[in-house]
Write a structure and sequence with these properties.
Length: about 375
């Protein structure tokens, strides 16, 4: 079968970074059957102006950031920026792909309509609840977000919760985040101590308060050791103490990260308990969960009952869930897991099975390609 020309117009690009960027990279880069074309998606990339390349980003870091967010949204939804982009390559096997995040998706939507090319939209997060805009603009943004789903020729949802929240669609599919193809083997330090080692690597910025409470309590533990990797917004005293004890680590390259990840007995996934963030937790599927599955070891999910990851775990029975917001409840569950070797083996086997089946990189890539072909 001939290659598919995938025109990516998105604020998020395929790079080896985290979350959505990494998902796009694994689906699109150096893949047989895909010829990738990346076009500009943001106003400052398309129409070179000092206002949007310098002033707006600066305002986004000030108390005026919501005003800047309003302007950014209105410019990308009102101005015909798609007219400045090159036409798609000739041929019938061409699609436009975008991620429903920030402003590039609006440019992609109009570009696809202008050139009569199928539009594929991936929904990884509920962007209207994240965007820094004022309430009246947020209401417009939410309606346009749902309309983007309805107008897409193919809607790719990160979870069943996302699909349910967006509503019915003639061609919508749930495709979970895609992990790396290489499993994670145990590193030598895994058996070098009697402590039960638990690793967390993920969003430490948004979850700073939750993780700070956990870290402060964990410092007093002797039987469970929790290590974090990332850059949290914690008090400097806590950061210094955690770093001194080698419990907090900065970002690292892939080989270093995988070696570190391989040193744990179990892994931690965290989602918001804040009621204001309920829709985000119900629609988002933690990418770190699929990454942890590469190790085939127990995963503990600390999240609300209604969250997408807990709902998945309840069905698969492949993870231990703690649905109380109190960090002491989580530490108690970790202590219980440490003492129950049979439960560790059971959870490890089920997580390994998940990596081989529904989290399989080969299977998820095949689902992605089938989706592309469905609109051509």
């Amino acid at each position: 079968m001939d290659e598919i020309n995938v025109i990516l117009i998105s604020s998020v690009r395929p790079v080896k970074s985290t979350s959505a960027e990494l998902t796009l990279h694994r689906h699109l880069m150096n893949r047989r059957g895909i010829r990738l074309h990346i076009l500009p998606a943001e106003h400052h990339e398309i129409v070179h102006s000092r206002f949007h390349s310098k002033i707006v980003p600066r305002l986004m870091r000030t108390p005026a950031r919501r005003w800047a967010g309003d302007v950014d949204y209105l410019m990308h939804t009102r101005l015909p920026l798609e007219k400045h982009l090159i036409a798609p390559p000739r041929g019938t096997r061409t699609v436009v792909l975008t991620l429903a995040y920030r402003s590039g998706c609006w440019v992609a939507q109009r570009y696809a309509r202008r050139h009569r090319v199928p539009l594929i939209v991936r929904f990884d997060a509920w962007w209207p609840d994240i965007a820094e805009v004022h309430h009246p603009v947020r209401k417009q943004l939410e309606q346009r977000f749902v309309d983007l789903h309805r107008s897409a020729d193919l809607s790719l949802c990160i979870s069943e919760g996302m699909l349910k929240a967006l509503g019915p669609h003639r061609n919508a599919r749930v495709i979970l985040p895609i992990p790396d193809v290489e499993p994670i083997g145990p590193s030598k330090s895994n058996d070098s101590t009697d402590e039960f080692r638990v690793g967390y690597s993920g969003n430490m910025f948004d979850y700073s308060d939750m993780l700070a409470d956990l870290a402060q309590l964990a410092l007093k533990q002797t039987d469970v050791r929790i290590e974090f990797r990332g850059r949290p917004r914690w008090p400097q005293a806590l950061i210094r103490e955690m770093t001194r004890r080698h419990l907090l680590h900065d970002f690292a390259s892939a080989p270093t990260f995988d070696a570190w990840l391989g040193s744990f007995h179990a892994y931690l996934v965290v989602m918001f308990f804040d009621a204001a963030q309920r829709r985000r937790t119900e629609t988002c599927f933690a990418t770190k969960l699929v990454e942890y599955s590469r190790a085939g070891r127990p995963v503990v999910i600390w999240a609300p009952e209604t969250s997408a990851v807990v709902q998945w775990a309840k069905k698969s029975r492949a993870a231990l869930c703690v649905t109380e917001p109190n960090a002491r409840a989580l530490l108690s569950a970790l202590a219980h897991l440490k003492s129950d070797r049979a439960l560790q083996l059971e959870l490890a086997a089920r997580m390994r099975r998940a990596y081989e089946t529904e989290f399989s990189p080969v299977r998820l890539q095949q689902q992605f390609l089938e989706g592309l072909n469905s609109v051509i």
